[in-house]
Amino acid sequence: MDDAAQDSVLTRDKILEAAEEVLRRFGPSKATVVDVARALGVSHGSVYRHVASKAALRDAVLERWLHRISDPLEAVVRGREPAPERLRKWMDALMAAKRRRVLKEPELFATYGILAADAREVVKGHVDTLVDQAARIIADGIKSGAFSVKDAGSAARSVFDATARFHNPRHAAEWSDPGIDTAFDGVWSLLNAALTARPAGKR
Amino acid sequence: MDDAAQDSVLTRDKILEAAEEVLRRFGPSKATVVDVARALGVSHGSVYRHVASKAALRDAVLERWLHRISDPLEAVVRGREPAPERLRKWMDALMAAKRRRVLKEPELFATYGILAADAREVVKGHVDTLVDQAARIIADGIKSGAFSVKDAGSAARSVFDATARFHNPRHAAEWSDPGIDTAFDGVWSLLNAALTARPAGKR
DNA sequence: TGACTGACAGATATTGAAATCTGTCAGTCA
DNA sequence: TGACTGACAGATTTCAATATCTGTCAGTCA
């Protein structure tokens, strides 16, 4: 009848919210659908009315989390600085976002790492989103003449691949190495040189 | 008395040999020092006469295995081709060595991955060896004028970092992706451009 | 005499019975 | 009438008793 303040109606969003909290508190190996239902005060059968399976629920929670990483980077992509500075800023923001999460809540980070291992498709989507962001910056750079590569898309993919050590969660343990920033600067200066290099009289 | 054919004397080498075989057959979680001793027909107490601990034994076996990867690359480093070709050949050989091992014996590869997780120092030594090999090639390239980077050592480290996705075992699962070679070519062409780029009239 | 054994203490791993979980669906109730 | 419940089958996980392992060392024996 009235459609406001209907706290009692079970929505997919509420389930995702609760699942996130349950995962945070119990970790991926202990969190159960029954826990999620209990947190919401419903039977676990009700949960299955809104999500197809436990795997689908985990996927959806992971997807949300990944969006909270990639969405804020949009602001950097749409920034006004020259493309080279903007690309560096975007990389810094990406790395900072990841590192902040490992440092602040290492266990939660590990939890999402475990979810990601079972959700290749979701992760692929996340990576594609990020590569697309980088590609848009590089395309700007090509247009303005700052970058001299042919294809923004493949350049973006290569930049992303070449910097894997600095943003791929598999390498998270290395992010607290003292030399990590120096290492990134080294890689960055090669990549930046490659992107900006004048086509050059052969060889 | 006589020092030939003394099959009965227990040496550190024989222990490493046996430990390798036990690890191959039982995997890292099941392999025990008792198994190694049994394979050698001695008591496990004897094994402790030659190795300080199970961890030290694992480290030594891992180190051997890593040497079997890095040693053959020396031939490439000492090759006669121009540095850029040689560096590429070295990278190809490194990647081929790793991929061959995952493909032929995935479980054994996983076993060594697990050993490596507990042997940071040994792994660090292996990486240093590899980076040093790359640095020697790059130094040649600088001498011959083919490369224009300042410091061979740090350039080598950056090249190694930038190609992590293609040789770091953490990414082994990605090595069977159909696009992996294309991805490497993309990264390589950026790195090659960066190394060979003429210092360029600024910006 | 010194390489090797084997029993030991404490730590770690295995095992299988009992408990819990996932996903379904006929039935309730607002 | 349709969102929700709760009991169920089969799969998975837990837990505590039991067995095995690691590292040591006094003692054997060649």
Describe the structure.
Two copies of one chain form a homodimer. The first copy, chain A, is an all-alpha fold. Chain A is built from eleven helices and no strands. In chain A, helix 1 (12-26) packs across helix 2 (33-40). Mean pLDDT of chain A is 93; it is low at 1-6. The A-B interface holds A 154-155, 157-159, 161-165, 168, 170-171, 183, 186-187, 189-191, 193-198, 200, 203 and B 154-155, 157-159, 161-165, 168, 170-171, 183, 186-187, 189-191, 193-198, 200, 203. Chain A binds a DNA duplex (30 and 30 nucleotides) through residues 9-10, 29, 32-34, 42-46, 48-49, 53-54.
Descriptive tags:
homodimer; 203 residues; elongated; disordered N terminus; DNA-binding
What is the gist of this entry?
The structure is a homodimer of 203-residue chains. The first copy, chain A, has helices at 12-26, 33-40, 44-47, 54-70, 73-77, 83-104, 106-117, 120-144, 152-162, 164-167, 180-196.
Work out the oligomeric state of the chains in this entry: homodimer
The backbone outline of chain A, from C-alpha atoms, is elongated
User: Largest interface, and how many residues on either side?
Assistant: A-B, 27 and 27 residues
Report the structural category of chain A: mainly alpha
In terms of per-residue confidence, which ranges of chain A show pLDDT below 50 for 5 or more consecutive residues?
Answer: 1-6
Percent in helix of chain A: 55-70%
Percent of sequence in beta strands of chain A: under 5%
The counted number of beta strands of chain A is 0
Average pLDDT for all residues of chain A: 93
Please compute the radius of gyration of chain A using only Cα atoms.
Answer: 21 Å
Distance between the termini of chain A: 75 Å
The total of helices of chain A stands at 11
User: Major sheet of chain A, described briefly?
Assistant: none
The H-and-E topology of chain A, N to C, reads as: HHHHHHHHHHH
